[in-house]
Amino acid sequence: MGFTLQGLGPFLHWMTLGALAVAPVLVAFVIYKLGSLPGSIARSRGHPQADAINICGWMGIITIVLWPLAMVWAHLVPGKPMGGPAPGTSEDQASLMAKLQQASQRIAAIESKLPRRTGA
User: DSSP state, 13?
Assistant: First the structure.
């Protein structure tokens, strides 16, 4: 019983050499893309700390722990809670004033529907 792929020997040697030459380039490209991903996401979202996120993403490639943190950080907007405008901003104050005016109007409407009491 002999080796049946013996005729493909030279081709397989060249194919292996090609794979060994392409694999490091491919691995380096994937590492480059993963390292720059948090920074590019932060820049596209207009994050004010995009440079720090970029550095954290590159350090995360080395330490592994920082990379997921950089990804989360890139998706967060600083100073703004998940539900609405940041407290203390003019947007927050304007929305609170509008709600207060609506509540005052509703109270006035309810009071006008109540019967008036005359002295007891």
Answer: H
